[in-house]
Design a protein that fits this description.
homodimer, mainly alpha, Arc Repressor Mutant, subunit A, three-stranded antiparallel sheet, 9 helices, 4% strand, globular, DNA-binding
Chain lengths: 228, 228
DNA sequence: CATTATAATGATGTATACATCACTTGTCAA
DNA sequence: TTGACAAGTGATGTATACATCATTATAATG
């Protein structure tokens, strides 16, 4: 009885939250979609109570907006939103590298560096490696508020990455990550933080350029002004 | 019909959220208290649905923890929590001064400076002035994610201020705010950001010193380790 | 007297019924 | 044909009934 059912049976509200969030950031549900609670109950195989709980959390993360008596709007992406999101990332990422990078063991950095040199990774593997790298610094902080902030912006960034399919930017990402990790290994935290800032700024520019290139063809997804 | 009933009739869930949060950060409900949904329904004069919604939001802000099948724990304050909270403030406050201070009109700064010179303010007035000053920079950013971060940490700080009653620190706060505003008025944003950083660090030290002085007498409120 | 098993209690998790409000559509009149 | 009013539809807001699980107390047995 010790290890048979050690799996914590996730509550429906947690499951609904994760499932719905996944569908939104993966753009299976497109930005701008107007949902109803009933359709979500059907989609998530749960009743309104856990679904409403999930919606409430996603609204706090600015992924959806609850329009009273109308429905649940999956927030559109916009140039404005990109600016806001990356303003937080620029504040955030260099700070945690600068302040908590020294809590990470050298072996972790060397392992990352080896991974960043690989050229035979699939796109999915690179995505995951990217997430792990950034998450490492968040975990090193051991700070629940920092973790919350990262949780709020992380998945939005994932959504933009999926929308922009930036295949050719992945190599650059590897190079920039490599630069950050090597400076951490040297203990040059100012340089590491600066490298992280540059990395975030470049990432922002890549996404903005993509939006500029494609917003003619996808006005229903990329929109400048929020409605209502 | 234009300005008669412009008051948006607040939903019960919004009302429940604000009321409960107010009771927690004002320490009318002491840290460490274990609540039940039923008692909250009674207290907030609402049914479980809006109450659960409020609890869910407060859990995301780390003000309460939902203990399945046990109750709702009002999170205790701890030295660890203070460190985490102020780590975010130190990252946050100087950044927005540095980046968005120039969006605030000179008149706003001069008005604040006049207020900071006053010596006839009540404690409540000083509290409010303090909040307004910091909120001004958040609003200047026009960034919803920054606003969310500030919303998450702001009220926690209020709670510590109420617990520590730091009467003698209020004068120092006025002086430090004055220093920040004058540097903003000069357009010396690096100096303004540095003044803000010093201000936050001092604020943190004042609270930590208070906790060290009093944690013997209030072990039920100040506790180092989280339970369970 | 101690220990274990069982039943009762009380908490949240979940589902659903009812209330309220906004919007749309259809009909009637000018 | 157009406009206004009313009824119907469908959405969330709210309340409550039921399910599940953990804890505790009590009783029975060694």
């Amino acid at each position: 009885m010790s290890e048979t059912d050690q799996v914590p049976p996730k509550s429906l509200k947690q499951l609904a939250y994760e499932t719905l969030k996944e569908k939104i950031v993966s753009c299976e549900i497109l930005p701008g979609t107007l949902l109803t609670e009933d359709s979500l109950c059907d989609m998530l195989k749960a009743s309104r109570t856990p679904v409403r709980d999930a919606i409430s959390r996603l609204e706090q993360e600015h992924l959806v907006s609850i329009k009273p008596k109308k429905g649940i709007r999956v927030n559109r992406v916009s140039m404005n939103n990109i600016q806001e999101l990356f303003a937080v990332r620029v504040m955030f990422a260099p700070y945690i590298v600068r302040n908590y990078g020294n809590r990470i063991r050298d072996e972790v950095y060397t392992r990352f560096i080896q991974q960043f040199k690989r050229t035979d990774c699939t796109k999915e593997e690179l995505f995951q490696l990217d997430n792990e790298f950034h998450q490492t610094f968040v975990d090193a902080s051991g700070n629940r508020y920092i973790a919350s902030v990262y949780e709020m912006i992380k998945d939005q960034v994932v959504r933009y990455r999926i929308l922009s399919t930036a295949g050719n930017r992945l190599d650059t990402t590897q190079t920039e990550h490599h630069a950050i990790a090597t400076r951490c290994l040297c203990g040059d935290w100012d340089a590491a933080a600066e490298a992280m800032r540059v990395h975030i700024e470049n990432s922002k520019l890549a996404i903005i350029n993509y939006v500029i290139d494609t917003n003619r063809n996808a006005h229903n997804v990329f929109i400048e002004e929020e409605e209502e």
